[in-house]
Amino acid sequence: MVETHRNFDARHSTTDSGGHNSEWLGQARLTCIITNVALNEAGGGPGNWPGLACLWQMAEITTLSEAVAGLVRDGDMVAMEGFTHLIPFAAGHEVIRQRRKNLTLVRMTPDVIYDQLIGAGCAKKLIFSWGGNPGVGSLHRLRDAVEHDWPLPLEIQEHGHGDLSNAYVAGASKLPFAVLRAYAGSDLPKHNERIKFIECPFTGEKLAAVPAIEPDASIIHAQKADRKGNVLLWGILGVQKEAVLAAKRAIVTVEEIVDDLKAWPNACILPGWTISAVCCVPGGAFPSYAHGYYERDNRFYQAWDGIARDRETFQSWIKTYVLETADFAEFRRAFGESVAQAKQ
Asked: How far apart are CA 203 and CA 60, in angstroms?
């Protein structure tokens, strides 16, 4: 991927040398593909910006390996969202496969995929609002990192659900922080210095404030994209939309790419200009489910408890099914064969 994806807040209210009035831009947030240009050359409408290769650029349709290689970097803040379903397991595996490190991982409900990323040594910090193996118990790799610094020390920053979801909204709105009525009687602010309290300038009420979440890269899974990179998702949405809009770069894996989304009124659609890359990865949310495509594999979550409890067992699993597989399709084949053999 040779192009650089940047978010650009246009605030011009003057006239350039060509006489193009750019006041119409106001506070518009443009998502641009910028190639060897200076932002201060902008003036007039999108078609009249001399020297500025700035378009309402559609997302690039590419492979997941290429997207992660170009858009997820060591040291990044990375958010992988998906609530109950549409959890981006395929993308998480690719981050492990490419051995990204020193990541600050953000997720409202870190579950098995973040247990895998932490155990594989990809993370230095976790920002979250709940953590566990849903319906089963603890995340043993997360606990080992926090309690015993294995495989690496892990800094944790815990929030409440309402807090973190509002922080995403603030990031998507390009605001510096979120304000909410929360934490009355809670001890959590004593353990998280990023939770502050302010006085409302209108009522004098004491309110909680938290900094905006603005990931370097956000990754989600969805059901469909069209060939222009527009994405349609449905079912339980969580904060996928906000995570994408708050990020500098965004990757969306999808079950299929179609000519026509056939979206219904009021559907949740992420336009292609908000996304950096779209990757077709059927089954990319497995073992979670994709509403309308496949069900959750509850047995996987139950089995994960035993796999993750022991360091050597975990390392062997990651090596066999992630590091030594070429992609998620090969992971699914290898894992499916092992399950079939276990039933014999």
From this structure: 47
Arithmetic mean of pLDDT, 53-57? 50
Residue 39 has pLDDT above 50, yes or no: no
In the chain, CATH 3.40.1080.10 covers 58-162+213-344
The domain 58-162+213-344 is placed in CATH, from the list 3.40.1080.10, 3.20.20.70, 3.40.50.1980, 3.30.300.30, at 3.40.1080.10
Note the helical H segments in 120-160.
140-148
Tell me if 111 sits within 8 A of 118, measured CB to CB.
no
| Own/partner pairs, 184-193, CB within 8 angstroms, 24+ separation | 186/160, 188/158, 188/159, 188/160, 191/158, 192/157, 192/158, 192/159
Structure tokens at 132: 């566990």
What the block records as the tokens of 242 is: 């906000």
Q: Write the CA distances from 127 to 78, 174, 196, 230, integer angstroms.
A: 10, 19, 16, 29
- Note the pLDDT tens digit of each residue in 148-198: 999 999 999 999 999 999 999 999 999 999 999 999 889 999 999 999 999
Cis status, amide bond into 287, omega within 30 of 0: yes
Q: How far apart are CA 335 and CA 344, in angstroms?
A: 15
Q: Could you tell me the pTM of the whole model?
A: 0.85
Residue positions counted in the chain: 344
Kindly state the tokens that stand for 290: 């994709």
